[in-house]
Specification:
It contains 1 helix and 11 strands. With about 140 residues, the chain is mostly beta strands. It folds into 2 domains: about 80 residues, no CATH class; about 40 residues, no CATH class. The chain is elongated and about 80 Å long. The two termini are about 35 Å apart. The relative contact order is 0.23.
């Protein structure tokens, strides 16, 4: 069997990833101090999401993006394939999927997550995020 690959061993590629960014907002109960005063007595903020830190952690919806970390722009060290069942174990429909190893890290990326340039990678992220917005 011959499997065509999109990239070659030793080629530099840019990966994309799907993740959720965390951000912080000032706690409305303690106004960012981490403490509240009741009848002249100071207590740690009791807001269940603040925990006396003065801020609340919140999360943006998951989205595709091009990480700026150099780890995601790498030279391919290994190419391999796997056979998988995209539906479930009962289905008899199997597909081959190509993955690439990032440098010496051992981290593997699938072919559909890799691009030759950051510009191509960003265009694909924009396309995928648009699909997410449209519920596809």
């Amino acid at each position: 069997m011959t499997i065509e690959t999109k990239f070659n061993h030793g080629q530099r590629v840019q990966a994309i990833t799907y993740a959720q960014d965390q951000y912080e907002e000032m706690c409305p109960a303690c106004q960012g101090t981490g403490k509240v005063t009741v009848n002249g007595v100071e207590f740690g903020c009791g807001n269940e999401f603040c925990w006396g830190e003065g801020y609340i952690r919140k999360y943006k919806p998951k989205q595709w993006f091009v990480p700026k970390d150099a780890f995601y722009n790498f030279v391919i060290q290994k190419i391999n394939t796997e056979t998988y069942n995209p539906k479930n174990r009962i289905s008899k429909e199997y597909k081959d999927r190509v993955w690439y190893m990032a440098g010496a890290s051992g981290t593997m990326f699938y072919e559909e997550e890799l691009f030759l340039t950051e510009k191509e990678a960003q265009e694909e992220c924009d396309r995928r995020n648009k699909q997410l917005e449209n519920g596809q």
